[in-house]
Structures are given as C-alpha cells and as structure tokens.
C-alpha cells in the first residue's frame, strides 16, 4: 500500500519511543479500494501526554484540545490531507445516554479493544507492516457488504447517526450500484430507526447530502425509506408513496420524485438541482383534487416551494441554499410554448428566477420530464426557450457600444443635436462591427472629423448602407444562436 512519507515518519517516531502505532479506519479502507484517503488517522497505545511529549521532542507542533484523547500533529506537508494528522490512543467507550456521544471515554490496552468499538467492519481495519483484519472487514470490502462490528443493535444504540451512515456507505462506496447491507445489520437499522430522533438536524443533513450527491442518490433515498429512516428525515416525501397522479404521469408521486432525482444524479447536477428535483412535487399529495386521469394538483408548485423551504430550514441548510432550492421548486412548472410565449414573458421568468439560476431551473425541468416517463429530456420547445433566453440577455447592437457618443460628436463638430449625429453614429457602428479594434476614441475622433466634412446627402447614403450592414450582423448573430440550440 502506498503510505505517504509523512505518515511513515509518524509511525516510526511512535515505535522508536516504544509504542505500538497503526493507521486505522477509513484511510485503510480507502487504500485497499485504491482511493486516495480524505484524511489520515493513527491509533497507538501511548497516552495523549506521551504522544505530545514524543512529538514535541521530535520538533513537531502539536495540539490537544478534546475529550477523546486525540492529538493533532502538524506535519508541514504541502498536501492538504497531510497537513495535520490525528493520533488517538486505543480507547473503549462506555454508555451512550444521548445516543450520540459516550458518557465517558476510557483508554484501552489493546488494538482489538479499540477496533471493537468502531461502526462497520470495513472501518475496523488497521495497518502497520500488514493489514490487521480482526472483524472480517477486508472480506466485506471485497464482497461490497456493509456489516456492523459485533452486535449491530449495540453499535446503533451507542451512536444513532450510524443508522444513516449504514445507508451512506451503501450508497457512496460503489460507482453505479448500492452495496449490500448485511441482513442482521439491516434488521437492526429498521428496529432502531426511531433513535435517529436523538441526532441533531445538522448531522442528519450532512449524511443526507453525502447520499444525495453520490451517483446512487436516488437509490440511497429509497433505501432510507425501506429501512424506515426517511420518516425521521423528510417524512413529507412519504405522503406521495402509493399516490397516483393523472393522465400526464405514468408513475406515482413518490416514484416520480425519485426518478427525477435519479436523472439529476446520472447527469451529475448540483446539490441544489438534485434537492429541487426530489422536492419539486412534494406538495402534490396535499393539493390533489379528484381521482383517476382527471385528477388535478393546482398550485402545487407554490405550496411545494413553501414546504421545501420548511424542510430545508428544519434540516439546517444554509439560507442561501434554502432560498435557491425553494425558487427552483416554485418555478419548475413555468409555461412555455413556441408560438404563445414571447420575449416579454421570458424576461419575466429571468427576473423571477434570476439569470444565475436559469440553467439549473431548466435542469430541474428536464429531470421532471424524464421522471414523468417521457422519452426526451429536452424537446424542441425547451431548446427554443434556451435560444430565446440567450437572445434576450444578449447586449443589443447599438451605438452605446462605441467608445464615443453623440455629445462627443456635437462638441467635435460644433453642431446641435439632429439627424447628422445619428448618421455618423450609424456609420461608426458598422465600422466597429467589421473591425472591433477600431473602437478606440482616438481613431473614432478622426473618423468623425472626416464624416463631418461630407455633404449631407453623401453622409445619409453611408448611414443607410451602414444600417443594412448592422441588420445583417444582427440576423447572422440570431442565426448562430438558433443553430446552437437546433431551432428554426
């Protein structure tokens, strides 16, 4: 295994001082998977004070400010994951009254005691000169199995966040498939799901985000439902389970939301788009009127935006994300038909959603379409909308683009406002469009002086020709924009 020199040096420093030392946990798991670790953890039978003394003597900066005995060693490495390496003594933990933190931390004598308190076998691996595999984690890693260390119910009662971590690991360890949660572990998750109520919303949010942003985000959410956890995270989603829609949808509401998220995950959309895709129809069960093909859901996007905001705030998402996701939900049902909606309506949509959010709104719309069972994510009218959106935000071709203005011309030629000023600006604009490098005040001043000396009839003729050239440029630019989106 490729162990960085900084880690090897720390291990040897502890061993030279007469102590055991191992890299442990997630970094060993990731090394075995061929994935660069996000951080490095070392465990030892040295006590915190002994660790500090050893590394202070060796010239390292150390920090020790926690109740778990963890000492941070500053390595000076240029690698961000190696700048500070945490060393924790072997430890065992007592009763977990709050289902999250041990009431008391005690230092252990052996590595086996330390590994026995860890959550899953794939995280209960250690390495020194060889892999130390006391709980079958290496085999579970090979077979893509999530299995609790020891008695699953005890592990989950110690720390209820492990309930979600089981789903998170199952969702994120594989590229395009879920890992299997071992049967006894799975049953313990279902039985102890209610313990999630003891966990802070911030910690739940963090685990949920890791699930959602994985390629298997939709499968992860479904696994949360199957294991009875979703009711303690986003219970509103369950309101749509088994609820039919109407003639425009072949899937039930919950399934539609999940398929929309799946499309967003498959296309590697942002977290905001994924959450909006999952929540865009969250209010349909509450706004449903009637049954069968003619059922309606009037106003579900408005109610849904409010519900999405409440859900996200409850989960302690940052305000900026709450506002953005709620906005994407609110406007996901925007109306657009090629022959019915003009530039003014498109400008209104841009104003409501914000130009910075429009591309993500279109992504939510595509996810909604595929989640509805239609074959194409981006039909002609959606491409036409993208063309019109780009067209209305393009800077108009106008004299204000010039490095000189009408006031400058009147001052240079000592004339009053009138058609002559407009003729000169039209001609200068056509020249600059042909050769943008000419758009310098010094050059344009010289041109104004030449144009000012021309007879009125000749100047007007030049201006008329210039207007035709500008119109040609506008048509050409519009054709290029149409071609970009394959519209006519």
List strands and helices in order, with pairings.
Layout: H1 5-16, E1 21-24, H2 26-33, E2 41-44, H3 48-57, E3 61-63, E4 71-74, E5 84-89, E6 91-93, E7 105-107, H4 111-116, E8 126-127, E9 131-132, H5 137-143, E10 145-146, H6 152-158, H7 161-172, E11 180-181, H8 183-191, H9 201-212, H10 217-226, H11 235-238, H12 253-266, H13 271-279, H14 284-287, H15 300-314, H16 319-330, H17 343-353, H18 358-371, H19 380-393, H20 406-413, H21 419-434, H22 441-452, H23 456-484
Parallel strand pairs: 2-5, 10-11
Antiparallel strand pairs: 1-2, 1-8, 3-4, 4-5, 6-7, 8-9
Helix pairs in contact: 7-9, 7-10, 9-10, 10-12, 12-13, 12-18, 13-16, 13-18, 15-16, 17-19, 19-23, 21-23
Please, how many domains? 4
Distance between the termini: 58 Å
CATH class of the largest domain: Mainly Alpha
Shape: flat
Q: What is the overall pLDDT average?
A: 89
CATH fold name of the largest domain, please? Hypothetical protein af1432
Quaternary state reads: single chain
Beta-sheet strand percentage? Answer: 5-15%
The CATH architecture of the largest domain can be given as Orthogonal Bundle
Q: Which stretches of 5+ consecutive residues score pLDDT under 50?
A: none
What percent of residues adopt helix (DSSP H or I)? 40-55%
Main sheet attributes: strand count, strand direction, barrel closure: 7 strands, mixed
- Separate helix tally: 23
Rg, rounded, reads 32 Å
Record field, number of beta strands: 11
Structural class comes to: alpha+beta
Cross-sheet strand order for the largest sheet: 3-4-5-2-1-8-9
């Amino acid at each position: 295994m490729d162990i960085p020199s900084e880690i090897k040096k720390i291990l040897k420093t502890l061993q030279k001082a007469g102590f055991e030392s191992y890299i442990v946990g997630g970094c060993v798991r990731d090394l075995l998977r061929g994935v660069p670790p996000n951080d490095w953890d070392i465990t030892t039978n040295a006590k915190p004070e002994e660790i500090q003394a050893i590394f202070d003597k060796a010239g390292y900066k150390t920090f020790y400010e926690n109740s778990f005995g963890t000492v941070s060693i500053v390595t000076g490495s240029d690698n961000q994951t190696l700048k500070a390496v945490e060393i924790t003594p072997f430890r065992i933990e007592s009763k977990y009254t709050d289902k999250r933190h041990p009431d008391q931390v005690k230092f252990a004598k052996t590595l086996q005691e330390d590994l026995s308190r860890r959550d899953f076998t794939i995280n209960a691996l250690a390495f020194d000169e060889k892999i130390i595999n006391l709980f079958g984690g290496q085999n579970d890693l090979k077979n893509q199995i999530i299995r609790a260390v020891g008695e699953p119910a005890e592990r989950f009662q110690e720390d209820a966040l492990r309930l979600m971590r089981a789903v998170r690991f199952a969702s994120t360890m594989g590229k395009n498939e879920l890992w299997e949660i071992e049967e006894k572990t799975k049953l313990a998750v279902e039985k102890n799901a209610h313990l999630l109520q003891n966990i802070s919303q911030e910690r739940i949010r963090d685990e949920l985000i890791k699930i959602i942003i994985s390629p298997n985000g939709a499968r992860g959410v479904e696994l949360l439902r199957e294991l009875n956890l979703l009711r303690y995270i986003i219970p509103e989603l369950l309101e749509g389970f088994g609820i039919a829609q109407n003639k425009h949808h072949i899937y039930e509401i919950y399934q539609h939301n999940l398929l929309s998220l799946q499309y967003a995950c498959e296309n590697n959309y942002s977290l905001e788009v994924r959450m909006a895709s999952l929540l865009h129809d969250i209010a349909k069960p509450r706004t449903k009127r009637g049954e069968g093909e003619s059922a309606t859901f009037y106003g579900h996007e408005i109610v849904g935006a409010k519900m999405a905001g409440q859900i996200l705030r409850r989960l302690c998402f940052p305000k900026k994300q709450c506002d953005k996701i709620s906005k994407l939900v609110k406007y996901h049902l925007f109306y657009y038909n090629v022959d019915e909606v003009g530039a003014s309506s498109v400008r209104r949509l841009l104003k409501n959603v914000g130009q910075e959010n429009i591309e993500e709104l279109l992504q939510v719309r595509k996810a909604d379409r595929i989640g509805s069972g239609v074959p194409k994510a981006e039909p002609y009218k959606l491409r036409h909308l993208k063309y019109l959106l780009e067209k209305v935000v393009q800077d108009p071709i106008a004299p204000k683009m010039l490095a000189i203005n009408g006031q400058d011309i009147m001052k240079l030629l000592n004339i009053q406002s009138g058609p002559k000023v407009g003729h000169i600006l039209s001609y200068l604009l056509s020249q600059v469009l042909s050769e943008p490098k000419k758009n310098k005040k010094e050059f344009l001043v010289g041109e104004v002086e030449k144009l000012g000396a021309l007879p009125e009839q000749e100047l007007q003729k030049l201006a008329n020709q210039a207007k035709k050239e500008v119109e040609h440029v506008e048509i050409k630019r519009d054709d290029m924009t149409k071609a970009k989106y394959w519209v006519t």
